[in-house]
Amino acid sequence: MIEHAGPGWRLARDPARGSFPFLIGGEGWAFELTQKEWAALVLIIRELSEQHLHLDAQLMSQESICLEMEKGPWWCCLDGDRDSWSLQFILQGDGEGARGIEGYWSIPAAQAIASAMTNFGTQSID
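Above: the chain's sequence. Below: its structure in token form.
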């Protein structure tokens, strides 16, 4: 098992967990993801982080920004200012038996887990 954590966030990968090898968590919540759900979430959070990075030089210090993106089953929102932001996300459970999940990372946990997720990447399960 590989695990990373910090104030307000948690990230783990355990190939022994079968269908749900990834775990993400926040303040008082956690849930498991499939490989496919994990890869899609990492991609959307990476894209939102990169969009913010490209826009931050154009923002004044206290000017707010809200970036939303929807891809596949995921909807994510990066909300903050030039220097810090939070992340909200929803996994839309379409179809019978599909899971629906909502989560939120506050400032500064959002930036820390986004960085950890990018470094963790879409690594294959060993």
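The domain at 2-120 is CATH 2.30.31.10 (Transcriptional Co-activator pc4; Chain A).
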